[in-house]
């Protein structure tokens, strides 16, 4: 297949992802654990992206244009049940950044997600979770004294702006805080082990 076909397939896959998410969010079903329909879409899209990696490495703007590259990143960021694909994608992105074929901000989001799923601390403060007060707050983050400098280095806004945006988005979607935070975290840990993020 040529680049145009891959680009079209990635864009359609990313659109299906966003449409499924919007529908499940509107019904409230999205917020009751990892919804099986959403997981199926994510996994099918991850399989497609793995094929693209095999063919061209990182599907950057130089090959697929802005919209194709953006679709590839959405799919990669949402491939949460496929640790090997997210790790491979991050390596490819980091190799592509010096050539202008990938975005440092996207890599920051993905590296943070991987770190949190592996049970570590994130670097840029892009990943959020519910806190004990029922608010969306940054997941564990290293070296807070230097956080704003790191965020600025990849084009991220101040942390306070992101916190406000994340909480506003959750409110707009009527996303409820978990009724039992400890149970939710236990379920997440079990899922992370099951799909291979944790030993």
Task: Tell me what the structure shows.
There is one protein chain. This protein is mainly alpha-helical and 199 residues long. It is 64% helix and 3% strand. The chain is built from eight helices and two strands. It has helices at 3-27, 36-56, 61-77, 83-96, 104-117, 147-153, 159-172, 181-195; strands at 128-130, 136-138. Strands 1-2 form a two-stranded antiparallel sheet. Helix 4 packs antiparallel against helix 5. The longest helix is centred in the N-terminal third of the chain and has 25 residues, at 3-27. The radius of gyration is 17 Å and the shape is globular. The model has no long low-confidence stretch (mean pLDDT 96).
Q: Which stretches of 5+ consecutive residues score pLDDT under 50?
A: none
* Main beta-sheet annotation: 2 strands, antiparallel
Order of neighbouring strands in the sheet with most strands:
1-2
Residue share in helix:
55-70%
Q: Could you state the order of secondary-structure elements as H and E? A: HHHHHEEHHH
Oligomer: single chain
Please tell me the overall pLDDT.
96
Assess the beta-strand content as a share of residues: under 5%
Distance between the termini: 37 Å
Radius of gyration (CA) equals 17 Å
User: Would you tell me the structural class of the helices and strands?
Assistant: mainly alpha
Number of strands: 2
What's the shape?
globular
Determine the number of helices (DSSP H or I, runs of at least 4 residues).
8
């Amino acid at each position: 297949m040529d680049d145009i076909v891959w680009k079209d397939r990635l864009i359609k896959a990313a659109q299906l992802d966003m449409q499924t998410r919007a529908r499940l969010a509107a019904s409230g079903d999205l917020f009751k654990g990892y919804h099986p329909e959403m997981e199926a879409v994510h996994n099918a899209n991850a399989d497609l992206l793995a094929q693209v990696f095999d063919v061209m490495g990182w599907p950057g703007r130089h090959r697929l244009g802005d919209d194709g590259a953006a679709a590839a990143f959405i799919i990669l960021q949402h491939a949460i049940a496929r640790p090997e694909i997210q790790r491979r994608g991050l390596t490819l992105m980091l190799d592509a950044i010096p050539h202008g074929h990938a975005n440092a901000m996207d890599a920051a989001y993905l590296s943070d997600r991987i770190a949190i799923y592996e049970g570590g601390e994130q670097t840029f403060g892009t990943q959020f979770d519910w806190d004990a007060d029922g608010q969306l707050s940054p997941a564990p983050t290293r070296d807070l004294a230097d956080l704003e400098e790191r965020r600025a280095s990849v084009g991220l806004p101040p942390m306070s702006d992101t916190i406000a945006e994340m909480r506003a988005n959750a409110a707009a979607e009527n996303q409820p805080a978990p009724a039992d935070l400890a149970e939710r975290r236990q379920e997440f840990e079990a899922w992370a082990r099951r799909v291979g993020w944790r030993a």
